[in-house]
Specification:
By secondary structure, the chain is α+β, with helices and mostly antiparallel strands. It is built from 14 helices and 14 strands. The strands form five sheets. Strands 1-10-9-8 form a four-stranded antiparallel sheet. Strands 5-4-14 form a three-stranded antiparallel sheet.
Length: about 400
């Protein structure tokens, strides 16, 4: 496959453009923030992980919707014998599981411009998906509006691929070509978080003792001044034993460093977690930052909101990208679709689920608003047909029954 593509050793600006996110952007604090260094901030790492792991833990299937000619009901059948199902659900390549592949693709797409995997196509079937490191590719739009991907190899050469040769997953985009980097958009929030961590680390390394000015009423000679500075640092500075300073000669110490209390350090760091959560559109509770006012019931609703509002768009992106780039390879697979099954993430506890479905079927004498087959479809079971497809009029009696 690779031998059919153009190869060159020239370095272009377009190729270097793909490295920008890994070179870094300067934040307002003066900290350089890159896609590689940003994951050193625990809130960024957690936000990207909770999205990637959420998508990866959903069962992925290639399914076919079949209409029952007798009942008219739709049955979802897994196309387990299709090559695309084996590729996505079992083995995308020789060294990655399905979970690992989807996790890596979504992790990179959530952080940066997107994620690329080269397709190894044999006899019209995609046999392998080979992920490309995020610093090794860039995308450009040609004069005819088509897109091509440049991949830079470790041997300083590069190759070009068109979209038919890759699986391309990206997040929100301004131009429809590249996704917007969440790291670049939130670089000031991430830079401030890094600066706060750096400040706290320096304070902790100094034993919580602030820096300051040691002054004397009388003028000191150079040798005395240098010896005093060294003695003070060895005793009270970084790695020193500390203790109570005893000064003579009308000496005084003036601190020039704000303490964590003065800087409201804890409150500021908590706010930075929320700012980073906004950039990734993740609820703070999913970044392990709990609200004291949250209850078990409200937390459960927040988890449902996470699935619907945070993971939902990524589910659609992955399903549609896989349908375009993988199922699109098979011109006969017009009745197939890629499905990420999120139902297990949306279910409540069994008692609440059972009570809800009982009422939906008409328990308590009230008319039903769901049929047995509709409930079976929600929990992943095939329809039964017959009375199971009719609404109850109360006491769980099917419509039209005696």
């Amino acid at each position: 496959m690779l031998g059919l593509l153009r190869k060159s050793t020239a370095v272009t600006l377009e190729g270097l453009a793909g490295l920008v996110g890994w070179m870094g952007w300067r934040s307002a604090t003066g900290m350089d923030v890159s896609e590689r260094s940003a994951i050193d901030v625990s809130a960024v790492f957690c936000a990207a992980r909770v999205i990637a792991e959420g998508i990866a833990q959903m069962p992925v299937r290639v399914v076919r919707d079949e209409i029952d000619r007798k009942t008219g009901l739709v049955r979802v059948r897994v196309a387990a014998d299709h090559w695309a199902h084996r590729l996505l659900a079992v083995r995308p390549n020789d060294w990655m599981t399905s979970f690992e592949f989807r996790e890596a693709m979504v992790f990179n797409a959530a952080l940066g411009r997107g994620a690329i995997a080269i397709k190894n196509v044999i006899n019209g079937e995609v046999r392998e998906l080979l992920p490309v490191p995020p610093w090794a590719w860039s995308v450009e739009q040609l004069p005819d509006w088509s897109l091509r991907i440049r991949v830079d190899h470790a041997d300083k050469t590069h190759e070009y691929f068109d979209l038919r040769q890759v699986f391309y997953l990206r997040g929100p985009s301004l131009d429809g070509v590249e996704g917007l980097s969440a790291i670049r958009a939130a670089r000031d929030a991430i830079g401030l978080s890094k600066a706060l961590e750096h400040q706290q680390a320096k304070l902790a390394a100094n034993g919580g003792k602030p820096s300051g000015i040691l002054s004397f009423k009388d003028r000191l000679g150079p040798e005395t001044r240098e010896k005093l500075r060294k003695d003070w640092r060895s005793t009270y500075g970084q790695g020193g034993d500390g203790g109570i300073a005893v000064l003579d000669g009308e000496a005084s110490f003036s601190s020039i460093t704000m303490t964590s209390v003065d800087a409201q350090h804890l409150e500021t760091r908590r706010l930075q977690v929320e700012e980073i959560a906004r950039a990734f559109r993740v609820l703070p509770i999913m970044l392990m930052q709990s609200d004291k006012a949250a209850t078990y019931s409200s937390a459960e609703q927040m988890f449902r909101m996470h699935v619907i509002h945070t993971l939902g768009p990524w589910i659609e992106r992955f399903e549609q990208a896989a349908a375009r780039d993988i199922l699109g390879q098979d011109q006969k697979a017009t009745d197939l679709r890629v499905d990420l099954d999120e139902r297990n993430l949306l279910r409540g506890d069994f008692a609440a689920q059972g009570d809800y479905y009982a009422k939906a079927l008409g328990a308590g004498g009230t008319p039903a608003w769901m049929t047995q087959d509709e409930i079976r479809a929600e929990v992943g079971l095939d329809p039964l047909g017959g009375d199971a497809g009719r609404l109850s009029q109360g006491a769980m009696k099917p419509e039209g029954s005696a």
